[in-house]
Every structure is written in C-alpha cells, then in structure tokens.
Design brief:
With about 375 residues, the chain is an alpha+beta fold. Among the domains are: about 70 residues, HSP40/DNAj peptide-binding domain; about 110 residues, Sandwich (HSP40/DNAj peptide-binding domain). Helix content is about 20%, strand content about 25%. The strands form 6 sheets. The chain has a 4-stranded mixed sheet with strand order 10-11-15-14. The chain has a 3-stranded mixed sheet with strand order 1-9-8. α2 packs antiparallel against α3. The longest helix is centred in the first third of the chain and has 17 residues.
Amino acid sequence: MADHYEVLGVSKDATADDIKKAYRKLARELHPDVNPAPEAQERFKLVTHAYEVLSDSETRRNYDMGGGQGGFGGGAGFNGFGDIFDTFFGGGGGQRGPRSRVERGEDALLRVSLTLEEVTFGVAKSEEIDTAVLCETCNGSCCQPGTGLETCDICRGSGSIQRQVRTLMGNMVTSAPCGSCRGYGQTIPHPCVSCRGQGRVRARRTIEFNVPAGVEDGLRMQLRGQGEVGQAGGPNGDLHIDFTVKPHDIFGRSGDDLTCTLEVPLHDAVLGAHAKIESFDGELDVAIDPGVQTGEVITVRHKGVNHLRGAGRGDLKITIAVQTPTKLDKDQKELFKKLAGLRKAETIKLARHSTGFFGRGKRG
C-alpha cells in the first residue's frame, strides 16, 4: 500500500494543520459527489484512510514507528489490527448502525381543471406529470449492471467513525458519519451512468385516475403511492390532486343543484307554453304555466349533480326571466293599448315587502 504521507502529498514532519489542509484540498477534488469517476473514488478512499490515521496523534505515532500501513501494528497492549480498528472506529458500545440508502419518495402535486359536466357525472382522467421514476438501467440499485455495492473499507460497514479522545475526565469516545461512504456503510464503486447513482431519474409519466361525481372547486384528492419514487428505488410518495371547476356558459351550481335562467317572452308568460332546453341529460321539455312571473323557479327533479357521498342527484333549478318587449310596431302597440283598456282597473303601485327574487309579485 502507498505511504500515507505520499497519498496526502505532505512531508513526514508535516503539522496537524498541514495534514488537514492537504486532506480538505484533495477531498474537494475527489469526493464522489464532485468526481464520480471510479479512479477518483478509489483514490478518495486512500486519501480518507490516510487522513484518519495521520490526523490522530496516537495513531500517527504508531504508524511512524512501523505499526503497519493502517497505523495499527501489533504493539504492546493491543491484540492486532482488528482489535485496534474496533477500538478507534466502531468497537465502542452504543454506536448507531449505517443509515439506509433507500428513502421514501416525495409527495407530488397535480392540478386538474374540470368542466361542470364532468363534475356532474364523474370522469376518467389521464394526465401527464413530470416526476421521479425508477431508473430502468439499474432498477434502483444505483450501480452499473453487473456490479454492486461494496462494504466501506474505512468504517467497515458501520457508517460511522469513532475515536478515543483523552480529556481531563479520562478517555471519551466520539462518533461521526464516515466521510467516505457518507454514513451508508457501503460505497458504490461503479455508479449507474443513467441515474448517477441515485436509483431514479426525472421523466414524464402518465397518471390515470377516476374523478368521482360531485367534486367541488378546491377539493383535493390523494392517490397513495402515486408520487415520486424514492432514492435507491425507495417506495413512492403520494400524489395530491387539486381540482378546479371551469365556469359554464349556461349552467351554474348551488350545492348539488344545477341552476340556469330561462328567458320567456311576455306572451308565453301570459298564456303559458312548453320550452325545449338542452341539459347535461339531453333535451328536456319544460312546461311554463300561464301567468308565470320573473323570479319564479321551475324545479326538474334529479337532473342536478350526482352526490359525492351517497346515491342520488340534486335538482335542476330553472329561474324564469320574463322578457318585456322594447320595440313594437304599430299593430302591436294597438293590441297592447286594447289590453290595457280591458285591464284598466289595474294601477301602478308599490307592492307589499316580500323576500326572495325581486319580491315575487302576485298573479292576477
């Protein structure tokens, strides 16, 4: 194995600060997050191991005395490399295990715009979303096909580095995440080139789902497990769908009732008539009673929005708006004058106060 001083590029009489500066400089160049090349990762391991040995005065003194490349020779008071390595790098009690590389994916949000007709009956939707999906090259393993994870030779798979520190109160053991494997306990010698060792990639995928009838503007629906895939092929997060309902040119909504306004010519309002209207259920025949007044409501049962919870539907509420003619020819004016003469007992006056649409008038 290479000499630790040569690996760090420092002399054997280098100070602790010199060793620290040399390691930081090399780590910035060779860290897997910066340089994913396999040869850089191998060198990073050597650099980190050399620093772990030379940054501790006791292990450095042991190394300088010929205690082996790792700095832990079979000197007096120790039982070989394994025991000393455990003493300083993971043999202490209470250590935490390596953290998992597999993580749950994040939740995703999708906004979907619906028409009032889609809300009335419900609809099957197919939407595209930009999200994280499983890498097809490595299938979430993070490694190039034919390769695999390897146990970190710095922390020996523990995910942490422990040291004995002499204090006034005696020897104490400190622990920190391993800088070589970042606390995972395993390294990726050959990261997947498609996902750069993440096990997932960004892509557009199609989401298919059913919108239940009766949803309202602003309602949010949750689809479990339809969010982003996690790192290293971890479980998917959830998908949240926010609904907005576009205004309709003819119909409105009040609860689960559909509403609309029917304009009725004056003569039809007086004599009564039948009107054909187009609804979400097709053509409907609406009977207009003689003498109908502006503001009166005709209710067509069970032609409204399907209930979101439970069976049944709301109603279709048709509000009457009597149209008073504004342009009359000579003959029409004469007819209205004759009508006024026949109903001369009626006068213009204030009506009794009444709640409701325009204080609905009485039929005469």
